[in-house]
Design goal:
alpha/beta, 3-stranded antiparallel beta sheet, globular
């Protein structure tokens, strides 16, 4: 759910959503997107909301590249809240041009001042592992018996993956190699040609 998407610290729909998720027993089944008002929350209120998010096992998705205000990503991570990076796909929104989450992570590294090796690894997790956790995907790992859904990159390490944010060498979905030409079309235009 898109919540508190304005520069007003009085917005409270993020808190209301967390409280409702707890009341309904929806722990781990709710996800908040944007939550830009959080940037302006006083510290005590932020800590209250972070505690509720943790109790509700809610994930926050941030798009720091789409505006000057964004969720307090570093602080949420420190509080133990699952955080992912997102990308606005509306053609009306000012956003990245390609459907490439490595590009989003690259921009977030600069916008969130997350540039140490450890922080770069965290950003990579925020576009890979953390979204899988948010979707409650089981068996999300590369091992015998796990579902064969993976992206093969052409880079030697995570830093280079974010720095270059090139299209993947291969995408495997349900054990099948995705056609490279279709994959490039999706990456460049954001939609598949018929």
């Amino acid at each position: 759910m898109l919540v508190d998407d304005a520069g007003d610290p009085g917005l409270r729909s993020l808190e209301m959503m967390a409280v409702e998720a707890i009341k309904r027993g929806w722990q781990g089944r709710a996800l908040a997107h944007h939550a830009r008002a959080m940037a302006l929350y006083p510290r005590p209120y932020f800590q209250k909301v972070a505690a509720l998010l943790k109790q509700a096992k809610m994930t926050v998705v941030s798009d720091p590249h789409t505006g000057p205000l964004h969720a307090r990503v570093k602080e949420l991570l420190e509080e133990g809240v699952n955080v992912c990076l997102g990308r606005t796909i509306s053609p009306m929104a000012i956003s990245v041009r390609r459907n490439n989450m490595l590009e989003v992570a690259f921009l977030a590294a600069h916008l969130l001042w997350m540039t140490t090796n450890r922080e770069i690894e965290t950003l990579y997790d925020m576009v890979t592992i953390n979204p899988a956790l948010a979707m409650n995907l089981d068996n999300h790992s590369i091992k015998v018996g796990a579902p064969a859904n993976l992206v093969v990159l052409q880079t030697p390490n995570v830093l280079e993956a974010l720095r270059e944010h090139t299209a993947p060498l291969h995408v495997i979905s349900s054990g099948k190699l995705i056609d490279r030409a279709k994959m490039e079309t999706i990456s460049q235009t954001g939609r598949m040609k018929s």
